[in-house]
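User: Just a sanity check before I run the rest of the batch. Below are the structure tokens for the first item. I only need the designed sequence back.
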């Protein structure tokens, strides 16, 4: 569904650049639904390579996982083959705005770092978001929970050490994320009640690789980050030259520490919980 990421290629290296963060928040939200976690039927919407499915499958009753990219699904199904064979999880190629499930099929939906890939911009009123949220409302049971894992515009600017080295991409990316008031309003319009917004301050989406800047000199390690997908060839060359130059000069450590100072206060991801009316 992404209009700017080549996830068919990215799928081969995605797991080396992304980890499932904030699982204590995810399980805490799911625990408020009103039935045991082990009895929940969960939809992993836009599952990618199945990182969150893999982290959840041992705690919930069953997972249905969908993604529009065959490469990502293949990676997910491969690493969760035992769970597929046991009937704990199933994978389907499908779009999140047209789900192949009956009404009121799920106790919960988890969607991780997906909605900014929809073909929307802020000035257009986010019509694709509305289609997706209405579809989520349709397949959720009454009282079922939607958990959106995303990023705020503030986190884009203050949660990543390399934001200042890629300002054009950050600017283009920021308009793809809804402001909180707009998100709440759209959820309500789609029959979903906002519950809470939480931030994971002590985790990073890339895991340990975030603290290894030399990895970003390699295209396959940049591929999992939407920021770099929005840079043109000239801008990518400049980014690589800037990072390599600081590493070669021995100045990168100081730059990283300075530019990463705000991340522990703002975090890199937010978790928005809503329930079906």
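Assistant: Here's the designed sequence for the first item:
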């Amino acid at each position: 569904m992404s209009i700017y990421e080549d996830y068919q290629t990215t799928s081969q290296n995605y797991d080396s650049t992304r980890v499932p963060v904030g699982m204590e928040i995810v399980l805490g939200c799911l625990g408020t639904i009103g039935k045991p976690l082990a009895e929940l039927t969960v939809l992993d919407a836009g599952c990618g390579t199945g990182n969150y499915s893999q982290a959840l499958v041992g705690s919930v009753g069953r997972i249905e996982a969908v993604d529009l990219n065959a490469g990502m699904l293949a990676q997910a199904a491969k690493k969760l083959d035992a769970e597929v064979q046991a009937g704990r999880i199933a994978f389907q190629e499908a779009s999140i705005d047209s789900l192949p499930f009956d009404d009121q099929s799920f106790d919960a939906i988890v969607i991780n770092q997906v909605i900014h890939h929809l073909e929307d911009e802020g000035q257009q009123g986010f019509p694709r978001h509305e289609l997706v949220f209405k579809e989520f409302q349709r397949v959720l049971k009454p009282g079922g929970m939607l958990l959106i894992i995303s990023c705020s515009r503030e986190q884009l600017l203050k949660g990543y050490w390399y934001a200042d080295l890629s300002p054009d991409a950050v600017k283009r990316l920021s308009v793809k994320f809804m402001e909180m008031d707009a998100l709440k309003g759209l959820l309500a319009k789609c029959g979903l009640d906002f519950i809470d917004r939480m931030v994971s301050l002590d985790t990073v989406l890339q895991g340990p690789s975030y603290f290894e800047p030399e990895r970003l000199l390699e295209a396959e390690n940049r591929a999992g980050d939407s920021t770099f997908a929005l840079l043109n060839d000239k801008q990518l060359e400049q980014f690589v030259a800037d990072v390599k130059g600081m590493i070669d000069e021995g100045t990168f450590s100081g730059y990283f520490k300075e530019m990463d100072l705000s991340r522990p206060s703002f975090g890199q991801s937010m978790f928005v919980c809503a329930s079906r009316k």
